[in-house]
Input
Amino acid sequence: MSERNDRKVTRATADLVAREANVSRIAVSRAFNPNASLKPEKRDRILKIARELNYTPDMAARSLVTRRSHLVGMIVPDVCSPWESQEIDALTTALQAEGFATLLFKVKADFSMDQTLLTYMRGFNPDSVIAFTENVEPAVLSGFLDRAVPVYIIYDDAEEFAAKRSTSLYDRLVVRQKEGIEQAVALLQGYGARRVAYLGGKRQSLANTERERIITQVLAERGMAPPVVVPGDYTYDTAYRATLDLFRVGDGADAIFASNDVAAFGAIDALRHELSLSVPGDVKVVGFDDIPQSHWKSYNLTTVRIDLADRVRALVRLILRRLKTPGADPLVETLSTRLVVRGTVG
Amino acid sequence: MSERNDRKVTRATADLVAREANVSRIAVSRAFNPNASLKPEKRDRILKIARELNYTPDMAARSLVTRRSHLVGMIVPDVCSPWESQEIDALTTALQAEGFATLLFKVKADFSMDQTLLTYMRGFNPDSVIAFTENVEPAVLSGFLDRAVPVYIIYDDAEEFAAKRSTSLYDRLVVRQKEGIEQAVALLQGYGARRVAYLGGKRQSLANTERERIITQVLAERGMAPPVVVPGDYTYDTAYRATLDLFRVGDGADAIFASNDVAAFGAIDALRHELSLSVPGDVKVVGFDDIPQSHWKSYNLTTVRIDLADRVRALVRLILRRLKTPGADPLVETLSTRLVVRGTVG
DNA sequence: TTGTACGCGTTATCAT
DNA sequence: ATGATAACGCGTACAA
Output
């Protein structure tokens, strides 16, 4: 009964390898744990036989006793948005190299992070969780995910924000957007822009509200009028229509600061292909993120760059550190931004 | 000792819930299994207390006994390519609705699907595996993944192909590319194209070789010259450079059939912004996939569409069926393609 | 409907 | 360096 079962393919277990190699089951376990002490020659023999039998330790069984699932949960609203897909790609690569697998969860696009999902997710016991959606209360998330390390990506004014959301107890990544925004506004001003519009992203997005706040602040500091704020949602289509509205119903603008690159593309296409305006001749456009598409010749977008590699490195650093020393004090990683000048301003 | 441990947060277990609700641990288990028989009122009380205690059944422990991990592995070379990120998004959404979580694994871009990854992956015991990389031998994959259901996406001439790769033992999805390609070639011919170039994708990609083969075949059937084949790799930058080569070093073409939409964008930008040729005036361009970017006004690409929703539905169907009836005969799902006419031909 | 006993595959503990 | 034993948290057969 326990010797043979009728499943088509019977998965090799440590016991099978042990029997085949004439060692104890424990020795097999140790062979797969580099730290365990085992006579090298014995380990080699075991690993060889394991390979022949196509044996791999079962992570589920292992996690049951080690309390480490080697799973990292990622919560995303849209896998197919260029920025996020890039980030998922880079994170998955980096984590895979460290022995962690990516567990992907999708939340509804309206950012309603329902408890259902978190409960569901918790069943998998991820060692860590990366939340891209910035509108989750730390308390909610950490309450649900015992073993997990919530990592929050917040923007500027980190300390003030942390205090407000009582998030200072958690590891977090701070993106200093102001630097890049200042450079962008300076460039726009230098080329004579007077009436700047801000093409917003999703209302609930923290990145968006912070971008709007900082742009307003920087414009004021430079003696310029406050931005005309046009609502959007980070998508091409919405940006396209919003730009048409701005110029047909509204009073237009001589510069558009978009909340991300994709929205900038929508604005550019509306200006050029429907409003017959020239970019940057009639209207200057600046984006945010610097996704690969931004250097495509049809757009050649001037944009505020967030360095993806740096960002991913910082995140992985936070995760690994928290995993190694669970009791350590919360750590803050900081990331700066800078303007990448291409052809849509000037 | 087993009553209290010193971990900061102690995960609620079925035992704890049972104690709190004054029921047996088994009752808790049953409360979470809809099929199990349990007095409704009792179940409700248990579920309520479970919610209060923030309890979720541990999937790892559960999978150990049920032999179902509720994990679906996805193997991708590039998360950030538009088509794949779309597909990952849709699949994750669909699978999540069915109670499965997506486990993401990245393979090297050169398609070298190394056994290391598969071994690593097998440790997680995914219930099913979707391989986007089309160059994995079924035998290799199935040998490594006992519990998994390899799903292969192959193109046209399914039976011939199946026989050649001895893949007929597995579930598979067949994409009939010929229909869309025929429509595209007819359109090109109708608008006077005579010299058609095929801008290739990754050499190892099965989709690519099949596309080239079918285009050649269709051109012949319509009495047109064979295509000028230009090597590429599905990326914008390579397509851009390849197009420059084609017109500066080579003899040019009056129509370019790109292996995917992104490559088509690269070709269009090279033609318009560097070679000062008009699209579609001087050169007509057709893509493949119909990603969201294809309707962006700057490109407005005529392209062969593969319906993503249909494709994902078919894949999920295959997976769920195989999970429910492991012994069932291999099933073939078929998908057709059609031309979406926009502004780059004619 | 409910409870008992056991096993899933692995590692930790404590021996030797 | 190695081996025996006891967990880890859960589902299932079986009995009640």
